[in-house]
Amino acid sequence: GPARNRVETVKELINEDRHVPLRDFVRWSKSQYYGNNSGNGRKSKLEGYECYAQGWSLVWFLRTGAGKARGWQKPWGEILDKYLQAVGGADRVAKLTSYTAKGTYSGYGPEGFPRPVEIYAKAPNQRAVIVRDKEAGDNTTVFSGTAAWVSAPFRPLAVMELHGAELDSARADAELMFPGNIKGALTNMRSSTDFINDRTVLAVQGNKGAALVTLYFDEETGLLTRTVRSTPSPVGRLPVQMDYSDFRDVAGVKLPFKWRMTWLDGRSNFELTEVQPNVAIDATRYNRPGPPKPY
């Protein structure tokens, strides 16, 4: 059972408004945790044993909360149901079968200037993204439904075919273009709670083959605000993070018109200006792209 002396210590800290907010407590260094601290800045200092009591209470909750704490770790199915409702409802989502989009892309460093971008998405999992560049040649990423390629200038391979975990990541990116795929996109799903910019988010993590994918849903709005997918490497997992914003209605379905992609050594920004839903898309859009050429 719980250590009663620590329970009483934590109750006292809460009653006296001397407890440390969770978002601050989990960021403490080892020296802060074991030393005397100023608490939450509103009351007197925390002694070392009081810090330890807070740490114990957090671990106790994590070990027992799933079965005894009301509302702890919602089942991932409930989180995804709320998301589908937030973006427009299952019926409208099912009717979105394709879309094309135009906007701008800006990279980092010498690629920081905006360039035109075109997106061609077809359910359930075909996707082509083309960043136009007349001088160097277009940067094109394609997932055909079974295979994926990247055609880009200034690369050792003009056209690179993706395999293994990278192919799994491309498949996940294509499937998540359509909210209706959200429940079947990943396997071995589990859920937890996290924070993004001081807002509570509900995280659903699962696997796409060898890729690990975490989806972050805003607890209040239910919208998908971040995805992080990672692939294994000899030095550890390599993450790619996507942050979504500016959601607008497209055929009754809320889609993000802005997102930022961040990886270990760079970032890029996408901003859409128009989206055309349920349009016919030429099947050749999802063929292996040619090498980039100036035009």
Radius of gyration: 23 Å
**What's the helix count?**
7
Q: Could you report the average pLDDT, rounded to the nearest whole number?
A: 89
Shape, principal axes of CA atoms: elongated
Strand content: 35-45%
Helix content: 10-25%
The run of helices and strands is HHHHHHEEEEEEHEEEEEEE
Structural class: alpha+beta
Query: Alpha-carbon distance between the termini?
Result: 72 Å
pLDDT under 50 segments (min length 5)? 68-72
Sheet with the most strands, sense and barrel status: 13 strands, antiparallel
Task: Give the neighbour order of strands across the main sheet.
Answer: 6-5-4-3-2-1-13-12-11-10-9-8-7
Number-wise, the strands total 13
What does this structure look like?
The protein has 295 residues and is an alpha+beta fold. It is 24% helix and 36% strand. It is built from seven helices and 13 strands. It has a 13-stranded antiparallel sheet. Strand 7 and strand 8 form a beta hairpin. The longest helix has 21 residues. The termini are far apart.
